[in-house]
Structure formats: C-alpha cells, structure tokens
Specification:
Strand content of chain A: 15-25%
Bound molecules: zinc ion
Strand order of the largest sheet of chain A: 4-3-5
Oligomer: homodimer
CATH superfamily of the largest domain in chain A: Winged helix-like DNA-binding domain superfamily/Winged helix DNA-binding domain
Number of helices of chain A: 6
CATH class of the largest domain in chain A: Mainly Alpha
Largest interface: A-B, 32 and 32 residues
DNA sequence: TGATGTTATGTTATAGAATAACATTTGTTA
DNA sequence: TAACAAATGTTATTCTATAACATAACATCA
C-alpha cells in the first residue's frame, strides 16, 4: 500500500487539536489521560493512516519507552472507552475519532490504495439501521459500518496495485 | 456465550438446502465444490452460530481428516469467492450466506448473548451508503455492516451475562 | 506523615487468527 | 501416457490479542 503519511513528522495541527480536545474531555470526566495514553493518542493522530497495535508499540519503543503488547492494548482500551479513537474491525487498526465527545460507532470509508480513512456521521444511515433493528425487536449495542474502496485522489491516478 | 446450537446433530433442513443450492451454483459456474469444500460448508451450516476457522478445523479432524490451518482457510477462501459464505470481521467467524447466487457484502445482526446471526438485505441501506460514497467520489469495493446487540429471544429472558 | 486501597504500568507467557513456502496428490487435457 | 493445472498436505512463521502476576504511581484518610 502506498502510505499517505509517516510517523516521523511533528504532530500536525490536527493532532494538536485532537490532543487538546482529549485533555479537555478527560478533565471534564475525571478520566486520567496519562503520559502513556496521551502519547498513544498522539502517535495515532500523527499518522495519515490508521495504525495497528504493534506498529504503535514499535513507535513507543523508538521513544525509548519500555513496553509490551499489553502496554499498548491497555492504552487503546482506555482511548476506545473514552470515545477518542475507533477500531476498524476489517483491518485490525485504530484511528482517531474526528468527533469525540459524543460516543458513537462511526462509519468509515477506507481507501484500499492509500489507506486513508474518512469518518462519516450520516444520521440517515443510523436512523435506517435503527428502523431495521427496531422492526425486528433487536437491541443495538454497537454498529460497524466500514466501506472498503478507492478514494477520489487514488481514482484520479492510473491504477497501480502494489 | 450461551451457544444456541451444536455441531453434533445431523445436517438440518437449512443445511441440506444450502448444500444443494451450492452444488447447483458451482455446477453452473464450472467451480469445483470438492469434498473438502462441501464438508466445510456443511460444518458451517450445521452450526446455529458462526464458526471460527479453528473450530471448523477441529471438526474436520474429528472427521478423521488430516488438516492444518491452510486446509480450512483455502476452503473458506473458495466459499467466500463463490459467495456461499460471509466473514464477520468483528468476530473473525464465518456464516453461511442466506442468499447466495447474487454476490453481496451483507448486513448482519449479531446477538451478543446467544451468538446467532440474522442476515439482512435492506436495499435502502445499500442505496444510502451508495449515495454517500457517490457524493464523495469514492468507489466502493466492499461493505461491512455488522450490528452487535441482543436478539428478541434473548431480550425476553432475564439478563444473564456469562 | 504514614498506612491503606486503588489505579496504572511492567513483565512474561500464551492464546488465537492468518499466511508463506514448498511438497504431494489429484484431475484435466493433449 | 505425458504434461499441465488445480487442489490438498505439511511445516513453519507472522500478526493480533489476552491471561496472569509483579511492581509502581496515585489518592484518601487516620
Ligand atoms: Zn468518531
Ligand atoms: Zn486513496
Ligand atoms: Zn449473503
Ligand atoms: Zn440472542
């Protein structure tokens, strides 16, 4: 996959805003955004594409920090619980939530070519799914809506599958 | 999880119909539904709940058949390619397709308590997703719509989480 | 302050899911 | 039958995630 971003660059504006937002939300809730958790969130936001847990772990180790899989999975669990990130089940990766504050399951467009992800919040989709489940007497706990395809940018270019 | 079915019972009517349907479709397409592939499909249909690849492998070994992970994954790949089964990304399990013949991504209601799955085919959902992706110039290759919750049967009972 | 309980992190080991690579067998076709 | 292609057997490895227990950091109260 042609990666659209890298991790070495300084935190982007997006990342900085996301971190500030996370700080505020956690403060509000009395949740502890520790150094480790903040750093994991920063790593996620510093990438243009969603990251797997082990990739995040590699970055932590590059930081000089000690760590093992539970280190990163626990941080991810916290961030998921706070609604600060989403997990993309189809790829086993994690991405920053563009609209934290209101917990939601999210709807994602995932580009097969560049790996970038758009997060939708189409209420009509939620409503339609809700109507369908209501009609069947099914109680919804979580929704997964992930669409794999090719983004406009990648469609412009001549197709080249790596 | 309270499993709603087991694998020991004889193939159900559903399973028999699904197998007959699969035979016909493969015949039509010149695809080879070999003993192994047919048996894997039968195992999947013989369970009231979706199965993981390694569970299927266990059953194959109980059959006295030799096998390793690639054995079952290759059969699953074939069945997926033929549109005879679906993979549920949120659970890493496989379930028989209720409407084979027309390839589709499917929409699933997954009960957290009993594990049973309903496959929807709501064209309105597809259309809405299509409208959203069209508006963004995003080319769709595959859709994942999985809803985790509690089915009507399990809602009737007093909540008991194992 | 120090004792105590709670939360977070460190650490080791293991479980679970999927694929790579190559050998062998089976089926098809010339 | 020879030659080729498709399917399966086999071994090893990679990737993802969690169990279990030890230690450290933080909060609360006597
Ligand atoms: Zn979100
Ligand atoms: Zn793209
Ligand atoms: Zn289907
Ligand atoms: Zn149920």
């Amino acid at each position: 996959m042609r990666q659209a971003g890298d991790l070495s660059c300084a935190p982007s504006i997006d990342a900085q805003q996301a971190l500030a937002r996370a700080e505020a939300l956690c403060q509000q809730r009395g949740a502890r955004l520790t150094d480790l958790r903040r750093r994991v969130l920063e790593i996620i936001w510093s990438s243009a594409t969603p990251l797997g847990a082990y990739t995040i772990l590699d970055v932590l180790r590059d930081d000089g920090r000690q760590g093992a899989p539970p280190t990163v999975y626990r941080a991810l669990d916290f961030l998921l619980a706070q609604g600060l990130i989403h997990r993309l089940a189809s790829l086993n990766v994690f991405t920053g939530c563009r609209r934290p504050g209101s917990h939601h399951s999210g709807q994602f467009l995932i580009c097969r070519d560049c790996g970038r992800v758009s997060e939708l919040s189409n209420p009509a989709i939620d409503e339609l799914l809700r109507a369908e489940t209501d009609a069947r007497g099914f109680e919804v706990l979580a929704q997964i809506v992930e669409i794999l395809g090719r983004c406009p940018d990648c469609l412009e270019e001549p197709t080249r599958h790596d």
